[in-house]
Amino acid sequence: MRKSLSSLAVLGLGLTMAGLGTAAPAAASPAAEPHAGFVAESSQSAQSAQSAQSARSAESDANRAFFQAVLESVAEKRAENPSATAAVTVVYDASRAPTFSAQIARSTQIWNSSVSNVRLQSGSASAADFSYREGNDSRGSYASTDGHGSGYIFLDYRQNQQYDSTRVTAHETGHVLGLPDHYSGPCSELMSGGGPGPSCTNAIPNATERSRVNRLWVNGLAAAMDKALEKSAR
Ligand SMILES: [Zn+2]
Questions:
Q1: Which of 37, 89, 177, 185 has its CA 20 to 30 A from that of 66?
Q2: What is the pTM of this model?
Q3: For 120, left (φ over 0), alpha (ψ -120 to 50), or beta?
Q4: How far is the centre of ligand 1, averaged over its atoms, from the C-alpha of 32 (Å)?
Q5: Neighbouring residues of the ion ligand 1, judged by CB less than 5 Å
Q6: Cα–ligand 1 centroid distance for 19 (angstroms)
Q7: How far does the centroid of ligand 1 lie from the alpha carbon of residue 45, in Å?
Q8: What interhelical angle do 101-114 and 165-176 show, nearest 10?
């Protein structure tokens, strides 16, 4: 079971199965693919300051790419139905992360009671703007996109035992909503992730993080809607 889920993660990384043989995704070089992790890449393995810096900038690129992919997915659905007045809804598929269903539901509840300009909603795989997956990965948990609009959050078994699992899930979901990592922040910041250590169990975004998400979804979605409407008019 775990093995097949790991294989899905490999597919999501845009690597071809051919040539990988039976290798698990953990066999890939940790810095090879940009990931928006729960802990800084530099704290996971010994790295020079320079490669740690480039890993961090690759991570923030991955954050932006994921957020853009989700924005585009939501905007394209709204463009098909321009008269929609309902709140902006981001649909997720949690069927491939059954171990974490309670944490995912709690994360959804936290975000939906924290921000007003976007709503998370559980749905089927075909309707989903992104998905949750689970498995074992030496890089821990992360948010990732293949660059073609199919983003997913990977929840790592071991990291979710070491750190508060609801905080990990809500943090990674923060990336979907557009927030970058800020590992040096305090425990009261959700996006400080694993920075404050495993004793930090706060799973709630602070006021700054809330207002940033609200702003991102007003401004970001407007731009993505323009693009989606242009595309559908062609
Ligand atoms: Zn992160």
A1: 185
A2: 0.75
A3: beta
A4: 17
A5: 36, 181, 193
A6: 30
A7: 17
A8: 50
Tokens of 4: 């097949």
**Contact of 25 with 9, CB cutoff 8 Å:** yes
**Residue 109: predicted pLDDT:** 98
Distances (CA, A) of 120 to 91, 94, 116: 6, 12, 11
C-alpha 232 chain-centroid distance:
27
pLDDT at residue 4, as a whole number: 37
Give the gyration radius of the chain's Cα atoms. Answer: 17
Catalytic residue IDs: 172
> What tokens were used for 79?
């463009």
What one-letter code names the amino acid at 156?
A: D
What residue type is 165 in one-letter code? S
10-residue averages of pLDDT along the chain (234 residues): 35 34 40 65 56 71 82 84 72 97 98 95 94 95 74 95 98 94 97 97 98 89 84 77
Kindly state the tokens that stand for 221: 């979605």
Residue length of the chain: 234
Identity of residue 178: G
Q: Which residue has the tokens 């999501």?
A: 12
Unique residue bearing structure tokens 């400080």: 192
At residue 10, the pLDDT reads 34
Q: How far is the CA of 81 from the centre of ligand 1 (A)?
A: 33
Instruction: Report which of 128, 121, 109 is spatially closest to residue 170, judged by C-alpha positions.
Output: 109
User: How close is the Cα of 171 to the center of ligand 1, in Å?
Assistant: 6
